[in-house]
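Hey, weird one. I pasted the VanZ-like domain-containing protein sequence into the form twice and got a warning about non-standard characters only the second time. First submission, copied straight from the form history:
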Amino acid sequence: MTAVWSAYAPVLVGTAAALPIAILLVLLRMRHTSVRRAVAEVGAVYGTLPWLAMTLTPDPGGARRLDLVPLRDLAQLAGAPLDVVVVQLVGNLLVFAAAGALLPLRYAWFRSLPRVLLLGAVGSTVIETLQYVLGLGRVSAVDDVLVNAAGAVLAAALTRPWWWTENGATEGIAGGWGRRP
């Protein structure tokens, strides 16, 4: 975990320092919208930006590598030390977790697990493409796309009971996984 701190200390400190600003933004947004929407808007951004910054942080000692074979990186984690597994797996699950959990609370269009999956997959594909094209010394892997998208969906599933309004309406979502059970 020391490696995480040494690589991402500025992002972690910046995230902590930005918390009062995020709270202030929620309070300001509450003047124009509900508490739920204000927290969802600010929280989705505040909870996602640090992870995006980390994924786009150059690794000076790393080599740019492309891995398009599904599940190969995940299989290699099986023999890795526990701290590496935790950082890689949990970190990738959390990249779009805030967006997946909170966007459905704010925007009716996201009240569908396939749409949240699409958000995670497209967002992650953009990240992996940028990592490779910008030559950040990182591995651009299809497994990261899969785990990032899964993290968004898992987080969305956790907040699913709160997607609906008090009267049970979904505010315009019909069909698919967006229906209330």
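That's the output from the first submission. The warning seems to come from a hidden character in my clipboard, not from the data itself. The chain is about 65% helix and 5% strand.
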